[in-house]
Structure formats: structure tokens, C-alpha cells
Amino acid sequence: MHNEGAITVITAKRLTLALAAAGAIGGAVGAIAVNHNNAVASAPVALAAQAPSAAPSATPVNPGAPAPLAAGVVLPDFTQIVSRNGPAVVNIRVMGSTKTAMGPQRGRGMPPQFDEDDPFFEFFRRFQGPQMPRGQQRDTPVFGAGSGFIISPDGVILTNAHVVRDATEVTVKLNDRREFRAKVLGSDPKTDVAVLKIDAKNLPVVPIGKSNDLKVGEWVLAIGSPFGLESTVTAGVVSAKGRTLQDDSQVPFIQTDVAVNPGNSGGPLFNTKGEVIGINSQIYSQTGGYMGLSFAIPIDVAYRIKDQIVTTGKVQHAKLGVSIQEVNQGFADSFKLDSPEGALVSNVEKGGAADKAGLKTGDIIRKLNGQPIIASGDLPAMLSVSQPGDKVSMDVWRDGKIVRIDARLANASDKVALDEREPAAGGADQSAKLGLALRPLDPNEKRQSGIASGLVIEDAAGAASSAGVQPGDVLLSVNGRAVNSVDQVRDVVGKASKSVALLIQRGNDRIFIPVRIG
Fold first, then answer.
1. Of 6, 278, 403, 457, which is least surrounded by CB within 10 A?
2. Which parts of the sequence belong to the PDZ domain (predicted)?
């Protein structure tokens, strides 16, 4: 479990963020990476700024007769939005370089049949001109492209951070075909937002809306440069809000079914009022191209990042200092919740904001500042618009009742002390109802693992094995109660009716696993 940021969300299925690879700048600018061994990755894909290429050939399609609309149904007319705001959408071209390892080169005319061990290799090498010394590297230029949009008449532009990552030169092309060299004022990889500036005046700008007002099912429109095809317009609906992806970000993404592809990165997402409510950023794909799932950064989040970059030149993120998990029905039964909602705290960072406020492992955060937390991803989404030093109030489910806990958020860049644990105790025995064979940690195991309290799981069978508990795991608590002996485990399990929540230490990760025993 990666826990560098404010919150780590653990799910049953890990998703891998696949950025562009071929000809990429910073690993994100170029063609999208695809596994060619007949097994493509199913993952959220950052919409990589793609290298300019020839336009793909169009295939004529006969859609047939249009289906009649039901009485009173009116489809949105996007033509006015495009004509009014299209001029403020820009194409971004980037140039960078990558280091290429060089040994003695064959050079032009070097016979391919000779390798370095061949006695004729040195003879031919002397006639090839200057050579790079063995072990040195040379800069190889790489190129890419993306989209962006103008937010002020004096040339301030928003785009994605991965579009301009590691770029040495950024060129902005306007809708009227004028081109300007752009300066990167700042970028934030955590939210994938970057701010550019070009030296121009009286430029067209896009109106900015409020992403919080967006509703699921609402029509939206995207303008960008997919595959280098500038000023391309696509439309769809909002599929969901507050999506959390496994990309180490805390962005509450807007999910849509708008067709976006490499080159759309950094382009605007409009509502039917013609207001920008998001920045197109990622897609979910098994092929590297659009498959019906697109994700945009809410403009409310992007503007908070923009304001920090413009004002201070850097970005600070708030940090609560907890690891959380989804609350499923098994956990709801274990903790006696009326519904499987909230964010289950699986670990509290020692010395962090949550620790200082009194938050504990096994707490379930149900509300933040009065706003309900339904899915665990709602918590980092809500915290993403907070600043270090902000005070938050949490409704926490603990020991069968709601407890109010107030915390002052820390800075995500601050370092905290390592976690410390209580001394261990207990004896060896077996918990048959769970299907676990348990024993105390021996002194050597405590020293090597850094775990001072808990029970080693020597074998897992039955309900525990089916739930995912593995031999070698260390059992730390049951239903939020720390356990140091098998008698304590029996006591807690004996009082449970349907299921129990086991807090497991597995390697460097702490995770809750629900085990149904009823």
C-alpha cells in the first residue's frame, strides 16, 4: 500500500496508471503504451500528449434513418457553444529530450556483421568519424502534443501537468493559427494541472462554471486535438461524479462517456451553458484508445491549484494522515452499522493530523464537515479542496456510536515520525470458528518486522481463507479491538453474529478483511 499522500485507498483490484511510452516526454508524452503480448492492460490511462501524425483515414458509415424523438424531447444544440468558445481552445506542442545510453557506435557504413569483439571492428571504427565514449549518453529529442484553454485575456492557459512534463519548449497554437512560445508557470503532478502563459493580449477566454453544480446524466461537450486533429468536438453525458482512481491522486474525477483520445489531454469539458466544468485528463482503456469511460478534473479543483501557482508559484496539499478502505456489507455487519457507508480507517499515521485529533484504527468516518461519506473515495475528494491548516469536523462511528472529532489538516509535504506500537502478549492456540491457526510473535519476528503486538497466522482455512487471509499475515485486531492472545480473539468472535473485521498486517500494508462467520 503506497502511503505517500494524504490518503491511501485500498481496493480489491489495483489499477495501474499507464502513461504514454513511445517517444514520450517524461513518460507521458507520446503514443499510449500497449502490451503487445496479446494481453493488454485494463487501466486508467492518462491521455498522453501524442506526437503529431498524419490524419487517420475516414471510413464512410451509413447510420440509417434517424430514430424519432419522443414528444417534448429536445437534444442540446452545441453549435453556439463551439462557435463562442472554440476560439479559446488551443493546441499545445511540446519538445523535450531523453537520455540515450551510448557505447562505441557502428556509425554510417559500419558493416553489421562486425561486433566489438571482431578484430576488424576497430579498423572500420576509425573511419567513422568522432564516436561517443563508452558509457556516455546523448540527448535524443522527443515531441508531443495536447490541448488547453485560455482563462484570461493576457494569455494564462490551463492544461494537464503530464502534457508539459519534462518539456524544454512549449508552443501554443491558437484557433486563428497564430503560434506563441509558452512559459510553464507551474504544474502539480498530484492533480495533473499545469498553468501556462503566453505573451499576448485581448485573447478570447472560456467562461468558468462550478463543477459542484454538475448533475449525473447532464450533457457535456469536449473540444480538443485528439491524434493531432485540432478543434475536434465530441459530446456525451456525465456518467458519475467523485470517481477515485488508483493513480496516487486525490482528484474526485468527473466520469463521462464523451469520446476523448490521446491529444485531448488538457482540453476543456463544457456544460450546456457553455461553461468549463472540467479538464479532460484520463480514459479507462484495454486498448490505449477510447472505450466509453473518460475522466475529467473538476474545474473547482483545477482553479484552486491555478490560484496557488499564480500567487505563490507552488502548490500545497492538505493531509489528514490516514489509510482508508471501502465499507462493504461484511464490515457493516462487523461494526454494527445500519448501512455499508463511510471510510474505514485501516491505519493512522503516527504524529499526523488524524493521530493528534484522536482518530483510531477501526474508526469509520461517516461525515466530513456535515457532508455524508457514502463511498470511501468521497473522503479524499472532499479533502482535495482543503488547504493545510484548515479545520475539519468528522462524525466517526466508534464502539457502536457516533463520536465527533475535530482535526486541523497538516501539509502533505511535512514529515512525521514512524508508527509505534504497544508491546505484545499472548499464547499459542487455534481459532476454529474463523479457520485460523494463531500464535504470538517471537522476539526475532518482532525485531525484523517492527510489529510489536499481534498474532501470527500460521494457517488459514474455511471462512478466513475464503475471505483472503493468508498464512504469514499478522492479526492485529478483531472488530477494532487489539488482540494479543487467542483468548481475546475467541472472546470477540464469540460475541459477533454475522461477520468480523480482521485488521491484518501484510508486509508494509495494513488492511481490514471482513470474514463472514454466520
1. 403
2. 309-400, 415-508
Across the chain, mean pLDDT equals 78
pLDDT in tens, 101-153: 555 444 444 445 545 555 555 444 444 444 555 556 667 777 889 999 999 99
192 noted as active-site residue: yes
pLDDT digits (tens, 9 = 90+) for 141-190: 778 899 999 999 999 999 999 999 989 999 999 999 999 999 999 999 98
The set of residues, in sequence order, having a beta carbon less than 8 Å from that of 425 and lying 6+ positions away, is: 440, 453, 484, 485
Residue 29 and residue 162 in contact, taking contact as beta carbons nearer than 8 Å: yes
Active-site option among 188, 192, 363, 378:
192
Nearest Cα residue to 104 out of 128, 88, 83, 80 = 128
Distance CA 81, CA 83 (A): 6
What does the block give as the cell for 197?
502563459
φ/ψ region of 288 (left if φ > 0, alpha if ψ in -120 to 50, else beta) reads left
Q: How far is residue 346 from each of residues 13, 209, 210, measured CA to CA in Å?
A: 17, 37, 33
Q: What's the gap between Cα 33 and its chain centre?
A: 17
- Active-site entry in 162, 211, 355, 477: 162
Which H or E run includes 409?
A: none
- pTM across the whole model: 0.65
Spatial separation of the C-alpha atoms in residues 481 and 487, rounded to whole Å = 13
The DSSP output letter for 208 is: B
Which of 211, 239, 249, 265 is catalytic? The answer is 265
Domains of the chain: 16-52+78-100+141-315 (2.40.10.120), 318-411 (2.30.42.10), 429-516 (2.30.42.60)
Known active-site residue 265: yes
249/49: higher pLDDT: 249
Q: How far apart, in whole angstroms, are the C-alpha atoms of residue 218 and residue 302?
A: 20
The pLDDT tens digits of the residues spanning 365-386 come to 999 999 999 988 888 888 887 8
